[in-house]
Amino acid sequence: MASSNDFVHHVSELLAPAGRVMVKRMFGGHGVYLDGLFMAIIAEDELYLKADDVTRAAFDAESCAPFVYSKDGKNMTMSYRRAPDEAMDAPHLMLPWARRALEAALRARAANAVLKKSAAKAAPKSKPAAKVKSSRPAAGKKRSA
Predict the structure, then answer these.
(1) Which of 25, 51, 118, 126 has the fewest beta carbons under 10 Å from its own?
(2) Is residue 69 part of a domain?
């Protein structure tokens, strides 16, 4: 799943007009962040952009394959799609695809926040432990005689 440094640099230049790009190594490939939001994967010199139900049709129209990896002998498909070939040619051609990926990442983050909030509400609340009063005076206070 390794990617060349030249390809990683090329992807960074393509995405730069969309925001602040940061690329981090992960699982033999790279994770791509745009303005701090995880929105793409680089694997084997291929760029895969975040996709969701809203953006999937646009990727399908361009025949952009999903990111698939093997785990325990099974193929696992993630919600990332290969960037269109034409978009890999110039930043102005990548910009609308980068925006789609960023929007999908924002929707995913919002959905996760709702799920976490719902899970927190559903969790049983425990009563706080009863406070035990000490017979010793608090520090700095004197007992009256």
Answers:
(1) 126
(2) yes
Question: Structural domain tally of the chain?
Answer: 1
CATH number of domain containing 65: 3.30.1460.30
pTM of the model: 0.77
Radius of gyration in angstroms for the set of CA atoms belonging to the chain, rounded to a whole number: 24
Half-sphere exposure (CA, 13 Å, Cβ side) for 48?
A: 21
pLDDT at 41: 97
Answer yes or no: is pLDDT of 105 > 60: yes
Strands (E), the chain: 21-26, 29-34, 37-43, 46-50, 66-71, 74-82
- The reply to whether 14 falls in a domain is yes
**Of 16-25, 46-55, 80-89, 132-141, which gets the smallest average pLDDT?**
132-141
The mean pLDDT value of the chain amounts to: 87
Could you tell me the residue range of the domain that residue 83 belongs to?
5-109
Provide φ and ψ at 47, rounded to 5°: -100, 125
What's the rounded Cα separation, in Å, for the pair 137 and 51? 62
